[in-house]
Design goal:
Strand content: under 5%
Number of strands: 0
Largest sheet: none
Low-confidence stretches: 279-289
Number of helices: 13
Mean pLDDT: 91
Length: 289
């Protein structure tokens, strides 16, 4: 039995928002934040996604703001529910931004699959405990709901289907693109900026040590080697063992309260987050709603 599990007894079919809220703010706040950041990073290796982000300039010229906006807009429905006023406003902003660009449904489904699969795989490997079957099902139900609110079609029905789709899509589409590489470099620089400057070389190697061969190849990043990979993984597993010994978290840990969110020291208006003017020639008036 784990030291703490706020989700015991909750129904993953009807209480999936609460279950995911507990996972993200009480059970695994650091792990899920890291994993979702890594999930988005993986999507850049699909050229149709990474190239678009590179050409808009949002992830290379305003990396911190784009990071903050994405994290906040994804967190609001989780904290307040899809049917809340703020939840609706956050999803509306996400959809308005996506409508500016020609994004395929296949890319949307792939990105959604990374939100389901990557955090589970991270927690399996580096979490202080594993997700229960009910928690994993709740994760599937939560992101299915998010996908429906975004107008995404052909959403996988099970975790196994999400996993198969993600792995297959990456096998078929991961490839090098110079614009995508610029987005990846800007993101790695941002992540390193959250720590003292002298740690940047270590963090660069540590980040690459957590990437699989396919991701390193797609970005043409140097493999740090098996020794550094093993040391990095051991460090995360040691952290997990230490976290397991800590008392249960009493207060929720929210993304917008984390020091790495820097763009809005005086608060924010959900309706003003994100981008409003197309930043690349790939533009259209219709899309998921």
């Amino acid at each position: 039995m784990s030291k703490s599990n706020r989700n015991l007894g909750l129904d993953p079919e009807t209480q999936y928002v609460e279950i995911n809220r507990n996972l993200a703010t009480y059970e695994f706040p650091w792990d899920i934040n890291q994993a979702l950041s890594f999930a988005l990073f993986r999507t850049y290796a699909v050229p149709s996604i990474g190239r678009l982000l590179g050409r808009t300039g949002a992830f290379t010229e305003e990396t911190q703001k784009r990071y903050d906006d994405t994290a906040i807009l994804l967190e609001v429905p989780l904290l307040e529910g899809f049917d809340s006023e703020n939840g609706k406003a956050a999803v509306r902003r996400i959809n308005q931004m996506h409508r500016m660009y020609d994004i395929s449904n296949e890319d949307f489904v792939y990105v959604l699959s990374t939100f389901v699969v990557v955090p589970n795989r991270w927690i399996q490997q580096f979490g202080w405990r594993r997700l229960t079957d009910a928690e994993l099902l709740a994760t599937v139900r939560y992101y299915q709901a998010l996908g429906r609110h975004m107008g995404i079609k052909d959403i996988p029905a099970t975790y196994a289907e999400f996993e198969t789709l993600m792995d297959g899509y990456e096998d078929a589409h991961f490839a090098f693109d110079p614009d995508a590489r610029r987005v990846a470099d800007a993101t790695l620089d941002l992540l390193a900026s959250f720590y003292p400057s002298f740690a940047k070389p270590v963090l660069d190697v540590f980040s690459r040590a957590l990437m699989d061969d396919a991701l390193l190849t797609a970005f043409r990043l140097r493999d740090p080697g098996p020794r550094i990979r093993a040391v990095s993984e051991r460090a995360l597993k040691l952290r997990a063992r230490l976290v397991a010994l800590l008392p249960p978290r009493r207060k929720p840990r929210h993304v917008f309260d984390m020091p790495r969110i820097r763009s809005y020291p005086n608060g924010f208006d959900i309706r003003e987050l994100g981008t409003f003017v197309p930043g690349c020639p790939v533009h259209r008036a219709a899309g998921p709603a």
